[in-house]
């Protein structure tokens, strides 16, 4: 909504502006996203996976609806993959309760954020409770007897939590949208 307001303001000044959609703007892009990350999933006989998205505490934000749709889509496709959001409607309590029913007792957290930063480091994989005394998701699962992991990548000799920005297929989606926007701009 904010972006649309800004674009409208600049268009009123005579500027021509084109833009692409979000990462999961179309279901074909959702499929491409899943193809990009599904190599990280534990197979059903090895444990379960939680795709961790950001989400929003606001009801009118479209990403929450998208994540609910993604969760439904994933549940119909994978029996051991769940979607949870740090700040959205697919709550920690809900997704961890599904994971606690998994056997064997192993869970892998898959960051579904372009940059796997503060939320993954602290809320999901943190080694100490937050200021309110709430343990991280991994601490809660470990206290329930689960082996916990996430995905990492190496870049220039350093290891990082693997956010979506490290997946070629994800970047190709953004590049495709940019190229389509440029084509509209110059045609």
Describe, in short, the structure shown:
It contains seven helices and six strands. With 187 residues, it is an alpha/beta fold. It has a single domain, classed as 3-Layer(aba) Sandwich (Rossmann fold), CATH 3.40.50.
The percent of residues in helical segments reads: 40-55%
Give the overall shape.
elongated
Structural class: alpha/beta
What's the Cα radius of gyration? 18 Å
Q: Measure the end-to-end span.
A: 26 Å
Tell me what the CATH architecture is. 3-Layer(aba) Sandwich
- Proportion of beta-strand residues: 15-25%
Number of strands: 6
According to CATH, the fold-level topology is Rossmann fold
- Main pleated sheet: 4 strands, parallel
CATH domain class name: Alpha Beta
For the largest beta sheet, what order do the strands appear in spatially?
2-1-3-4
Oligomeric composition of the shown chains: single chain
The mean pLDDT is 93
What's the helix-strand series?
Answer: HHEHEHEHHEEEH
Give me some keywords for this one.
7 helices; two-stranded antiparallel sheet; alpha/beta; four-stranded parallel β-sheet; 16% strand; 187 residues; elongated; single chain; Rossmann fold
């Amino acid at each position: 909504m904010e972006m649309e307001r800004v674009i409208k303001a600049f268009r009123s000044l005579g500027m021509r502006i084109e833009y692409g959609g979000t990462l999961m703007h179309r279901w074909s892009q959702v499929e491409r996203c899943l193809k990009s990350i599904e190599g990280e999933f534990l197979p059903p006989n090895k444990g379960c996976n939680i795709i961790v998205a950001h989400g929003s505490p606001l009801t009118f934000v479209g990403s929450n609806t998208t994540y609910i749709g993604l969760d439904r889509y994933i549940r119909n496709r994978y029996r051991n993959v769940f979607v949870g959001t740090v700040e959205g409607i697919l709550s920690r309590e809900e997704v961890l309760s599904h994971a606690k029913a998994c056997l064997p007792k192993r869970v892998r957290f898959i960051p579904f954020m372009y940059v796997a930063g503060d939320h993954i480091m602290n809320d999901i994989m943190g080694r100490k409770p937050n200021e309110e005394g709430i343990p991280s998701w991994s601490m809660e699962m470990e206290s329930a007897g689960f082996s916990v992991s996430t995905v990492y990548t190496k870049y220039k000799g350093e290891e990082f939590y693997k956010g979506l920005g490290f997946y070629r297929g994800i970047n190709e989606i953004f590049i495709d949208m940019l190229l389509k926007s440029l084509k509209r701009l110059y045609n």
